[in-house]
Amino acid sequence: MAGMLAEGREVVKSGRRKSLAGSGDESEDEWAVVEKTQIYDFAWPMGGMFLWLKFDFSTHPLGRRVSHASLSRALWVLWTHKPYLVLVSPGTIFCPTKEIAEAKGYAYFRLCFAACDESELAPISTRFVEGIQAFWRIKEEGKIKDLLDEGGMGVVSEDVTGMGGPC
To answer: How confident is the model over 134-158, as a mean pLDDT?
Structure first.
Protein backbone atom coordinates (compact mmCIF):
# COMPACT_ATOMS: atom_id res chain seq x y z
CA MET A 1 0.00 0.00 0.00
CA ALA A 2 2.72 2.48 0.92
CA GLY A 3 4.53 1.79 -2.37
CA MET A 4 1.39 2.57 -4.36
CA LEU A 5 0.81 5.71 -2.32
CA ALA A 6 4.40 6.83 -2.94
CA GLU A 7 3.97 6.40 -6.69
CA GLY A 8 0.72 8.37 -6.76
CA ARG A 9 1.64 11.32 -4.56
CA GLU A 10 2.42 13.61 -7.48
CA VAL A 11 0.28 14.93 -10.26
CA VAL A 12 2.10 15.04 -13.58
CA LYS A 13 1.28 17.66 -16.18
CA SER A 14 2.80 17.64 -19.61
CA GLY A 15 2.53 19.96 -22.55
CA ARG A 16 4.40 22.00 -25.08
CA ARG A 17 5.81 25.48 -24.61
CA LYS A 18 7.24 28.01 -26.95
CA SER A 19 10.97 28.58 -26.73
CA LEU A 20 12.07 31.94 -25.36
CA ALA A 21 14.72 32.26 -28.05
CA GLY A 22 12.99 32.04 -31.43
CA SER A 23 15.26 30.55 -34.04
CA GLY A 24 12.86 31.18 -36.88
CA ASP A 25 12.26 27.45 -37.38
CA GLU A 26 8.86 26.76 -35.82
CA SER A 27 9.65 23.09 -35.21
CA GLU A 28 12.51 24.15 -32.93
CA ASP A 29 10.53 26.90 -31.19
CA GLU A 30 8.52 24.43 -29.07
CA TRP A 31 9.68 22.01 -26.45
CA ALA A 32 8.04 19.46 -24.19
CA VAL A 33 7.46 20.28 -20.55
CA VAL A 34 6.75 17.88 -17.73
CA GLU A 35 5.78 19.31 -14.35
CA LYS A 36 5.39 17.27 -11.19
CA THR A 37 3.48 18.65 -8.24
CA GLN A 38 3.30 16.80 -4.94
CA ILE A 39 -0.30 16.37 -3.76
CA TYR A 40 0.25 14.64 -0.43
CA ASP A 41 2.90 13.15 1.78
CA PHE A 42 3.06 10.42 4.40
CA ALA A 43 5.52 8.56 6.57
CA TRP A 44 6.00 4.88 5.89
CA PRO A 45 4.53 2.98 8.83
CA MET A 46 7.10 1.42 11.16
CA GLY A 47 4.50 -0.49 13.16
CA GLY A 48 0.84 -0.47 14.05
CA MET A 49 -1.94 -0.60 11.50
CA PHE A 50 -2.46 3.00 10.37
CA LEU A 51 -0.97 5.26 7.76
CA TRP A 52 -1.57 9.00 7.85
CA LEU A 53 -1.59 11.15 4.71
CA LYS A 54 -1.26 14.93 4.72
CA PHE A 55 -2.66 16.68 1.65
CA ASP A 56 -1.54 20.00 0.22
CA PHE A 57 -4.81 21.37 -1.16
CA SER A 58 -3.04 24.53 -2.34
CA THR A 59 -1.77 22.41 -5.26
CA HIS A 60 -5.33 21.63 -6.42
CA PRO A 61 -6.44 23.61 -9.52
CA LEU A 62 -9.22 25.15 -7.40
CA GLY A 63 -7.04 25.63 -4.32
CA ARG A 64 -7.24 29.43 -4.57
CA ARG A 65 -11.01 29.62 -5.14
CA VAL A 66 -12.41 26.87 -2.91
CA SER A 67 -11.58 26.47 0.77
CA HIS A 68 -9.17 23.67 1.50
CA ALA A 69 -11.57 22.19 4.03
CA SER A 70 -14.25 22.03 1.32
CA LEU A 71 -11.84 20.39 -1.10
CA SER A 72 -10.97 17.83 1.57
CA ARG A 73 -14.63 16.97 2.18
CA ALA A 74 -15.32 16.74 -1.57
CA LEU A 75 -12.36 14.38 -2.03
CA TRP A 76 -13.66 12.19 0.78
CA VAL A 77 -17.05 12.01 -0.96
CA LEU A 78 -15.47 11.30 -4.38
CA TRP A 79 -13.76 8.20 -2.96
CA THR A 80 -17.22 6.76 -2.23
CA HIS A 81 -18.14 6.90 -5.94
CA LYS A 82 -17.57 4.22 -8.54
CA PRO A 83 -15.02 3.20 -9.65
CA TYR A 84 -13.14 4.13 -6.43
CA LEU A 85 -15.45 2.84 -3.67
CA VAL A 86 -13.03 3.44 -0.81
CA LEU A 87 -13.84 4.84 2.60
CA VAL A 88 -11.09 6.37 4.75
CA SER A 89 -11.13 8.28 8.02
CA PRO A 90 -10.92 12.06 7.73
CA GLY A 91 -8.40 13.62 10.09
CA THR A 92 -10.94 16.02 11.54
CA ILE A 93 -12.57 13.23 13.56
CA PHE A 94 -9.32 12.73 15.49
CA CYS A 95 -8.76 16.38 16.43
CA PRO A 96 -9.04 17.11 20.14
CA THR A 97 -10.70 20.51 19.57
CA LYS A 98 -12.94 22.12 16.98
CA GLU A 99 -10.32 24.85 16.49
CA ILE A 100 -7.63 22.34 15.53
CA ALA A 101 -10.04 20.50 13.22
CA GLU A 102 -10.91 23.73 11.43
CA ALA A 103 -7.32 24.99 11.29
CA LYS A 104 -5.58 21.89 9.96
CA GLY A 105 -7.45 18.64 10.59
CA TYR A 106 -9.01 18.72 7.11
CA ALA A 107 -5.57 18.17 5.53
CA TYR A 108 -5.21 14.66 7.00
CA PHE A 109 -6.68 11.25 6.25
CA ARG A 110 -6.00 8.05 8.14
CA LEU A 111 -5.83 4.71 6.37
CA CYS A 112 -5.99 1.38 8.15
CA PHE A 113 -4.29 -1.40 6.25
CA ALA A 114 -5.37 -3.99 8.84
CA ALA A 115 -9.07 -3.39 8.05
CA CYS A 116 -8.75 -4.96 4.57
CA ASP A 117 -8.21 -8.51 3.46
CA GLU A 118 -4.60 -8.76 2.28
CA SER A 119 -5.63 -9.85 -1.23
CA GLU A 120 -7.76 -6.69 -1.54
CA LEU A 121 -5.15 -4.24 -0.30
CA ALA A 122 -3.48 -3.64 -3.69
CA PRO A 123 -6.73 -3.08 -5.63
CA ILE A 124 -8.13 -0.82 -2.89
CA SER A 125 -4.90 1.20 -2.74
CA THR A 126 -4.93 1.56 -6.53
CA ARG A 127 -8.53 2.83 -6.51
CA PHE A 128 -7.67 5.21 -3.68
CA VAL A 129 -4.77 6.77 -5.61
CA GLU A 130 -6.80 6.88 -8.84
CA GLY A 131 -9.47 8.81 -6.96
CA ILE A 132 -6.91 11.36 -5.81
CA GLN A 133 -5.55 11.78 -9.33
CA ALA A 134 -9.09 12.17 -10.73
CA PHE A 135 -9.92 14.74 -8.05
CA TRP A 136 -6.87 16.83 -8.96
CA ARG A 137 -8.17 16.97 -12.56
CA ILE A 138 -11.40 18.70 -11.47
CA LYS A 139 -11.27 22.32 -12.61
CA GLU A 140 -14.92 23.34 -12.22
CA GLU A 141 -16.20 24.64 -8.90
CA GLY A 142 -19.64 23.22 -9.73
CA LYS A 143 -18.30 19.66 -9.54
CA ILE A 144 -16.91 20.35 -6.07
CA LYS A 145 -20.26 21.84 -5.02
CA ASP A 146 -22.08 18.74 -6.32
CA LEU A 147 -19.82 16.47 -4.27
CA LEU A 148 -20.32 18.61 -1.17
CA ASP A 149 -24.10 18.64 -1.63
CA GLU A 150 -24.11 14.88 -2.00
CA GLY A 151 -21.80 14.42 0.99
CA GLY A 152 -24.37 15.92 3.33
CA MET A 153 -26.75 13.03 2.66
CA GLY A 154 -24.76 10.63 4.82
CA VAL A 155 -25.38 7.70 2.46
CA VAL A 156 -22.50 5.39 1.66
CA SER A 157 -22.92 2.50 -0.75
CA GLU A 158 -22.53 -0.98 0.69
CA ASP A 159 -20.00 -1.63 -2.09
CA VAL A 160 -17.53 0.79 -0.50
CA THR A 161 -14.43 -0.87 0.95
CA GLY A 162 -13.29 0.63 4.25
CA MET A 163 -9.73 1.70 4.86
CA GLY A 164 -10.75 3.70 7.89
CA GLY A 165 -10.48 0.98 10.45
CA PRO A 166 -11.57 1.24 14.05
CA CYS A 167 -11.50 4.76 15.47
So the answer is: 82
